[in-house]
């Protein structure tokens, strides 16, 4: 899979791509990430990428010509004939649809993703109309540029590409993961199914994790985790995931796959 980033700050990505999972994925050639300096697609002495907004108002706007030339230099199909099951051109924007784990899962199935980083007041809207398949926002706040958003999207999508984490179950059995029924179909014991004491989050938040030492600053790990009873551990983890989701992200419960037992447990928390 290949990511192309169009930006006025290509050097921004140097350190992000040089660490941890991203570095390993690139080194093992499962993924490539190319940055493209927008100023290389200008033709004036000052390498101008922005101009004042029509209609007046604050700030500057990224001009359409350099971004269009940058996109056209990438060898990606024009929007009218693009196969969006393989390639996608994405505009990073606070006005975009929310970037979620399920969008990351979908991006991880593509061959090519082009990410356009805005700056200043944003990008001339004709770039969006002419070239982009979607606008994505990484959250309800305004960043000063699309670079951090691009890095977030690449990180989240890249770790879902088969082979990048080594064990595919690691990225499936975590917060916002697919439903347990989907996971059961995907992971048989001989294909990396996790220990019996784990379960898919099914769209919930992950359960809390503990490691050694068993006691730290007067806080002991929950007894059940040391007991070795996989069914009890599984139930304990499920309840903690439900509890945490109810407390921090109750909106997720509306879409989560919940058993009768889960619902009974949630009701017991609410009274
Ligand atoms: N005038 C824009 C607005 O009010 O929506 C904000 C422009 S922002 C200062 C500059 C650039 O940062 C945007 O063009 C976009 O590329 C990026 N950006 C800002 N917030 C973002 C977010 N939440 N998600 C993705 N990109 C964002």
Quick tags:
35% helix; single chain; Alpha/beta knot; Trp Operon Repressor, Chain A; binds S-adenosylmethionine
Question: How would you sum up this structure, described in words?
Answer:
The structure is a single chain. The protein has 271 residues and is α/β, with parallel strands linked by helices. The protein has two domains: 2-158, 3-Layer(aba) Sandwich (Alpha/beta knot); 176-268, Trp Operon Repressor, Chain A, CATH 1.10.1270.20. The chain is built from eleven helices and nine strands. It has helices at 13-16, 20-27, 64-72, 101-107, 125-131, 147-158, 168-172, 180-186, 223-227, 230-248, 260-270; strands spanning 2-7, 32-37, 50-51, 61-62, 87-98, 112-116, 134-137, 215-216, 219-220. The protein has a five-stranded parallel β-sheet with strand order 2-1-6-5-7, sandwiched between helices. 28% of the residues are buried. S-adenosylmethionine is lined by residues 92-95, 117-119, 121-123, 137-139, 141-146, 149.
């Amino acid at each position: 899979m290949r990511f192309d980033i169009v930006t006025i700050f290509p050097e921004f990505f140097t350190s992000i791509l040089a660490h941890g999972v991203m570095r390993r994925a690139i080194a093992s050639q499962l993924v490539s990430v190319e940055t493209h300096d927008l100023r290389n697609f200008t033709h004036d002495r000052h390498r101008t990428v922005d101009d004042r907004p029509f209609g007046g108002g604050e700030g500057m706007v990224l001009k359409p010509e350099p971004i269009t030339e940058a996109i056209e230099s990438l060898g990606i199909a024009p929007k009218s004939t693009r196969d969006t099951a393989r390639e996608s051109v994405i505009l990073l924007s606070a006005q975009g649809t929310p970037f979620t784990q399920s969008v990351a899962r979908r991006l991880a199935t593509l061959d090519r993703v082009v990410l356009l980083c805005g700056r200043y007041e944003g990008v001339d809207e004709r770039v969006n109309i002419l070239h982009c398949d979607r606008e994505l926002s990484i959250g309800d706040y305004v960043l000063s540029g699309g670079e951090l958003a691009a890095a977030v999207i690449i990180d989240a999508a890249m770790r879902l590409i088969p082979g990048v984490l080594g064990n595919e179950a690691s990225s499936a059995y975590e917060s916002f993961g697919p439903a347990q029924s989907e996971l059961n179909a995907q992971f048989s014991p001989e294909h990396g199914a996790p220990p019996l004491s784990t379960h898919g989050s099914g769209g919930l938040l992950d359960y809390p994790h503990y490691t050694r030492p068993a006691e730290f600053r007067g806080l002991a790990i929950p007894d059940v985790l040391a007991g070795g009873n996989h069914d009890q551990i599984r139930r304990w983890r499920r309840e903690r995931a439900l509890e945490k989701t109810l407390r921090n992200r109750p909106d997720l419960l509306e879409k989560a796959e919940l058993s009768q037992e889960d619902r009974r447990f949630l009701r017991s928390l609410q009274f």
